[in-house]
Amino acid sequence: MLTTISWIALSIGLICTIIIAIDIIRHPQMMKIMNVVWPINGWFFGPFAVWAYYKWGRLKAKDADEEDDRKKTAKVFVSTSHCAGGCTFGDIVGVPIVAMTGIAVAGSTLFAHYLVEFILAYLFGIAFQFFAIYPMNKGQGVIQSFKASIKADTLSVITFQIGMFGWMAIVHYLLFTQPPKPHEPTYWFMMQIAMIIGFLVSYPPNWWLVRKGIKEAM
């Protein structure tokens, strides 16, 4: 039953990613990196991501003719989505690296996933933030934009990964006698849930970062 549910959830996520991607091809975002972020978020947030994209994302398309009347809650949601996109991409890249190399940390494959995926999530998270900041502030240069990206997204990435890793620990130690493997659909269904939890955990820090002016509301 869980395998069937996993296939359904993964299929819905893929369909939602395709729906968003097709519309973005027709209506590209003003901020280019969001052309990547929205489809990635469609994979784990499913229909909710499609709804959020059409309600809030489309307002920032190059050809948008509607007034941007989004409230702060929505803008912080998009900022969190931006961080989640980078983290998710890094995590997805990290999983096969650990699976194919068979590396372990302190004798644990889970800890190896934590290490590799955190490093990649951080790198891609900062890169996604850089590609949001630099185009708007080319006058300040690459180095300053890179520093601003680290300042804006470090807390966000860390809290996202904490939420995600917490769920992974529950899956690994509590929910299964034999944790699912990366070649099984259940593993990726659990990862979808992990991304949602990571998003929810990182939303309050993103709100704080925006309120303090450390991070721009998107």
Write a short abstract of this structure.
This protein is mainly alpha-helical and 218 residues long. The protein contains seven helices and no strands. The protein has a domain of 147 residues.
Would you mind describing this structure in some detail?
This protein is mainly alpha-helical and 218 residues long. The protein has a domain at 65-211. The chain has seven helices and no strands. α1 (2-26) runs antiparallel to α2, α4 (72-101) packs across α6 (141-175) and α6 packs across α7. It is globular. The N and C termini lie far apart (40 Å). The mean pLDDT is 91.
Helix-strand sequence: HHHHHHH
Oligomer: single chain
Strand content: under 5%
Shape label: globular
* Helicity, as a percent range: over 70%
Give the strand tally.
0
Radius of gyration, taken over Cα atoms and rounded to an integer in Å = 17 Å
Which structural class matches the secondary elements? mainly alpha
Q: If helices are DSSP runs of H or I spanning 4 or more residues, what is the number of helices?
A: 7
| End-to-end CA span | 40 Å
Largest sheet: none
Look at the structure and give the mean pLDDT. 91
Low-confidence stretches: none
